[in-house]
Design brief:
The structure is a single chain. By secondary structure, the chain is mostly beta strands. Helix content is 9%, strand content 50%. The chain has one domain: Uncharacterised protein YcnI-like PF07987, DUF1775 (Immunoglobulin-like). The protein has a five-stranded antiparallel beta sheet, with no helix packed on it. A four-stranded antiparallel beta sheet has the order 1-3-8-5, with no helix packed on it. Strand 10 and strand 11 form a beta hairpin. It is globular, with a radius of gyration of 17 Å. The chain starts with a helix and ends with a strand.
Length: 164
């Protein structure tokens, strides 16, 4: 019986979760796979878009295609070009959005991208996400936790940058 309860709790956890990043920490100045886990819809409405707003410190990001979803990338010019394995990069993604689905409220899923983490060991990146749902509902996961304060109702996902 205890085992059954543990299994049910493990399965129920994603449905109660906010939008979070997995893993929560990556090495600074590394290429990393990030999964943005969406644990529920907006009320009972299915999710039809997940929009990830990337901090300016992230100069490279590539989304993983997802069957049934279209990808939209909005770029921004970099203040100064950065070197990559393919030459100088003059613009970077400002946001990546997956649109389509739908992802029913009763299920969870992950939206994956690869980034080049900034060379800022010890820093924490705030990565706001807007979740859009059927019927025009939306949830903006954009609030930043202040030290010593309770966790916000709609916290923005965060990514810690560890030592290289």
């Amino acid at each position: 019986m205890k085992r059954l309860i543990a299994v049910l709790l493990a399965l129920a956890t994603p449905a109660a979760a906010h939008v979070v990043i997995e893993p929560p920490e990556v090495a600074a100045n590394s290429y990393a796979r990030l999964a943005f886990r969406v644990g529920h819809g907006c009320g009972t409405a299915a999710t039809i878009a997940v929009e990830v707003n990337l901090p300016e410190a992230v100069t490279m990001a590539r989304p993983m295609p997802k069957p049934g979803w279209e990808i939209a990338i909005e770029a921004r010019a970099l203040a100064r070009p950065v070197s990559s394995g393919h030459g100088l990069v003059r613009e970077a993604p400002a946001s990546i959005a997956w649109r389509g689905g739908p992802l029913p409220d009763a299920h969870y899923d992950e939206f994956v991208m690869m980034i080049r983490a900034p060379d800022q060991a010890g820093a924490t990146l705030v990565i706001p996400v807007v979740q859009r749902c059927e019927g025009g509902a939306q949830h903006a996961w954009v609030e930043v936790a202040e030290p010593g304060q309770p966790r916000p109702r709609s916290p923005a996902p965060t990514l810690r940058l560890g030592a290289r």
